[in-house]
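Intended use. Records like the one below are meant for learning the mapping from a protein sequence to its folded structure. Do not use them to infer anything beyond what is encoded.
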Amino acid sequence: MDRAPGSRATEVGARPADAGPPPAAPPVPTPVGGAPRVLILFGDTGGGHRAAARALTDALKLFDPTCLVTVADPLMAQGPTVVRRLASLYSPMIQRSRVAWGAVYHTSNTKPTFAAIRAVFGPGVRKATVELIKQHDPDVVLSVHPLLNHMTYQAIQKSGRPRALMTVITDLVDFHRGWTFSRADLVVAPTELARKVAIRRRVPADRIKVLGLPVDLRFRPPAPGEKEALRRRFGLDESRFTILVVGGAAGAGGLMKQVAALTEESHQWQVVAVCGRNEKVRRRLAGLGFATPTLVLGFVEYMPELLRACDVIVTKAGPGAIAEALATGVPLVITGFLPGQETPNVDFVVRSGVGKFSPKDDDLLEEVRVLAEGGPTWREMSRKAAELAHPYASSDIARECLLLAARYRASAQASL
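Structure written out for the chain above:
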């Protein structure tokens, strides 16, 4: 699922992602009976949408191995050139000028501006989505991106048979108005706070379900003795309080300064720094001498295991990182946020009692020092994290998706 921009959609379980472009073929007719078909649409603007699509793909295949799941990006991979170029600006913008991104987000989050965006860019994205539906004939089109819901509904209307539109919101508390489309068959909200926002934006209450944010099912609390075993596997001290510092897939977010603040002097803890794809930061950190034991890593595919080996995570307020930490029962120290959709996440973490907000390095050091004592503060935050978690959100969402698929498949067959 994790493809380079411009690659084709892949039908999970049908052909490998690296098998090359499939030969041109006429649209697949709706089978009588047969396997359910799900088309998951995402946009490669940040890693969160991609991760949600991957988690849902895995959960759908776990529930029903016969399910034909296609994952596609109508914005970056299949969309028109102008849409691809604009969407590609997201990652550079959030790394170089978060203030500018905040202005873009809030400006686009008004009714007139969002209507203008749909009018200008909608036709190209809708055309790409129509072609995807024609090619894969899904029973359910599941969107995990705010810019795709309205155009997807229009594409479904042109497709010639009944299909469900399902939206899975991947922001925790407040979110862009593009997420809330009142004609979707089902809108999945990650939290009760998000459900209330959706209702205020006129999504019928009976079409909203609070199921959590979809994360990889490998994110779970450690079994007895597993934390120590994982630390041995990673070459860590079994008995030391362990801090995971992450900067996202791009390795951004002040990672160098945060690691330095936690390791410049000798402490009773140990640090695991995950630099993502930022090879420059990884090399710089790897070349430093640390007074506190520190493991420096680049991009990893075993983040669930790392989280289970650690006692606290230091991260920005991305919804995916928060949901993964909660699913593992690990408290958070939030060091920053992306203006716009991530702003309310800080308050959510602090008010829920599952983490602290420490934007300054001195504050970060002090918060970690308190948590590393292993006293009631850390234990209470861990307990609340486990209570707030939806570790099986992906499975719950997959089940609802397959129920919709069965309903619409029956409707399609009845119309034959």
